[in-house]
Amino acid sequence: MRDYLFAFVITGGLTFVFSWVVWRVAMKFGLHPAIRERDVHKNPTPRLGGVAMFIGMLGFFVLSSQLPAFAIVWQEPSMVWSLLGAAALMVVVGVADDLWDLDWMIKLGAQFVAAWIVVFLGGIQIFYLPFGQQVVVSSWVSISLSILLIVIVMNAVNFIDGLDGLVAGVCLIANAVFFAYSAMLVRDFDNSEQSNTGVFIAIVLLGMCAGFLPFNWNPARMFMGDAGALLLGLMMASSAIVVTGNLPPNLLSDNDLFGRSQLLGAFIPVILPVVIVLLPLVDFGLAVVRRMGQGKSPFSPDRKHLHHRMLDMGHTDRNAVFVFYAWTAVVSLSVLLMYIGTTKGWPGRYWPGVVFLVVGCIACVIVTLPPARRTRRVVPQRKVLS
Question: What are the TM regions of this chain, as residue ranges (predicted)?
Answer without folding.
Answer: 6-27, 48-74, 80-100, 112-131, 137-159, 166-186, 198-217, 229-247, 267-289, 319-341, 353-372
